[in-house]
TrEMBL record:
Residues 21-208 form the HDOD domain. It holds the Pfam family HDOD. The lineage of its organism: Bacteria, Pseudomonadati, Pseudomonadota, Betaproteobacteria, Burkholderiales. PANTHER family: PTHR33525, RIBONUCLEASE Y (PTHR33525:SF3). Gene3D superfamilies: Hypothetical protein af1432 (1.10.3210.10). This is HDOD domain-containing protein. InterPro entries: HDOD, RNase_Y/CdgJ.
Length: 278
């Protein structure tokens, strides 16, 4: 099967909801479903997270990050971490775990390198989206963080399937964009029961149309994606390694500028990225 036929085959499966996830994703999906329940009590969330050592460690780490620890008081337990973060942020952490687990079964060195770069890009986008939401667009920062985490989930899915179709990720990124990104991305997001606002914002990024200054969640995601210093390996020409030129984007925000906000928020962004990269 050639590359384009393979993209179309996986896209058709995604459209039908026939998605093959690694086995370690199943437990995380159950945790996500529990946290999505509006009746989920904090005690239930604590017990679910304590049952997963990796999730427990990440929950405490992000609760102690600059972004969420305004007082500077360090905590060491899951319960106070859950109380500080709230269910919305926990949903983002579980989403991050699911996205990373999609790439955990990859053994091919080239694909592993792509997955690693894609996650680094994702962490930057998520952290930047949270800051831009809070300081610029004034949309919900938790939703912006969550959307940044899942915006490339279709890419992680195709990388998790790529070993079944040798050579599918060779060549130029336009092939992925044209023949797989939207259909596969949409299918995976639906399978993960993403909220409509998140779905719409990711689709806005695929369309590539945004306002400057940004106005809504879709604009927030697009700007964060443009500003991320690490590019997605699924959208960059061969040999390209940085997007430093995007850092020239600037505009007035109140009494300051976007550049002022990014410099003021640099420690916060780095703290969030460090936690997501754990």
């Amino acid at each position: 099967m050639n590359r384009l036929a393979a993209f179309k085959h996986i896209s058709a499966q995604a459209a039908r909801g026939e998605l093959a996830f690694p086995t370690n994703v199943a437990a995380s999906l159950k945790l996500q479903q529990a946290l999505n329940d509006p009746d989920c009590h904090a005690d239930t969330a604590v017990k679910l997270i304590q049952a997963d050592p990796l999730m427990a460690a990440r929950t405490v780490a992000i609760a102690n990050s600059v972004a969420y620890n305004r007082s500077g008081t360090q905590i060491s337990g899951v319960r106070p971490a859950v109380q500080r973060l709230g269910v919305r942020t926990l949903q983002s952490l579980v989403a991050a775990l699911i996205v990373r687990q999609l790439g955990s079964t990859i053994t091919d060195p080239a694909l592993k390198t792509m997955a690693s770069q894609l996650w680094e890009h994702t962490a930057h986008v998520a952290a930047l989206a949270q800051v831009i939401a809070r300081r610029v667009t004034h949309v919900d920062p938790d939703t912006a963080l969550f959307t940044g985490i899942v915006h490339e989930v279709g890419g992680f899915y195709i990388l998790s399937r790529a070993q079944e179709f040798p050579g599918i990720m060779d060549g130029y990124p336009e092939d992925w964009v044209e023949h797989g990104e939207v259909e596969i991305g949409r299918g995976v997001l639906r399978k993960l029961n993403m909220p409509e606002a998140v779905m719409n914002s990711v689709e806005a990024m695929w369309e590539g149309l945004r306002a400057l200054p940004p106005e809504n969640l879709g604009d927030t995601l697009l700007l964060a994606n443009d500003l991320a210093p690490v590019p997605s390996p699924l959208h960059q020409p061969p040999g390209a390694t940085t997007r430093a030129g995007a850092r020239t984007i600037d505009f007035v925000v109140g009494d300051g500028t976007l550049d002022d906000i990014l410099r003021e928020s640099d420690e916060e962004v780095k703290s969030l990225i460090a936690v997501l990269m754990l």
